[in-house]
């Protein structure tokens, strides 16, 4: 008998009769919404800069140093070839042969047209007397010396040097017009041995850079402006010298 019990509430009965598959469906819907949100965030991160030009990172550029340009090179294969030679200088076997004990100057038949240039001389000492010297120099149109780079064969200890070996023990002297020590004059003990050697004299404006067989001395600067078109000379006294090449580069 059910007379002493209340009838079940209709709403409760309806809730109890709802299908149980709706709860998993809600979970699936929520997961789908979460995936959609994550996809939207990723799309915004990857497409947010669409239409904005991306500037490439600048790559540092290096300026290549131009190679020296040869503006003059000697050629004695067929004689003097434009060189005016004193009596003590002759062309032999494609080179210049300088001999004798008297001072001599041999002008290079080329006049530079720029204040920056380099003159190179390849040579070999055959014999040198004590007190002899040789090197490179330049004069302006008035005959004033512009600079001088010279090997002086005057050793401090003469007994230690045999001139017949073909070397020159003494000092390198580099001086510029109006130069005084220390900026315009440089001198140092030096040795030039026998065999093939090379002098290199470079002008940078009013500064002289001098190297002997790759061994460079301190730069020397002129106290007054140098002439832009000097007369280049080989100077020699009491040194028998074979000059195999003269080259001017800019």
Notes on the protein architecture:
This protein has 250 residues and is mainly beta. The chain has one domain: Jelly Rolls, CATH 2.60.120.200. Helices cover 13% and strands 42% of the residues. It contains 2 helices and 13 strands, in the order ααβββββββββββββ. Strands 1, 2, 3, 4, 5, 6, 7, 8, 9, 10, 11, 12 and 13 form a 13-stranded antiparallel β-sheet that branches. The chain is globular. The chain starts with 9 loop residues before the first helix and ends with a strand. Residues 1-22 have low confidence and may be disordered.
List the helices and strands and how they pair.
Blueprint (H helix, E strand, L loop, with lengths): L9 H7 L5 H26 L22 E4 L15 E4 L2 E4 L5 E4 L8 E24 L5 E9 L14 E9 L8 E8 L3 E9 L2 E6 L2 E2 L3 E2 L9 E19 L1
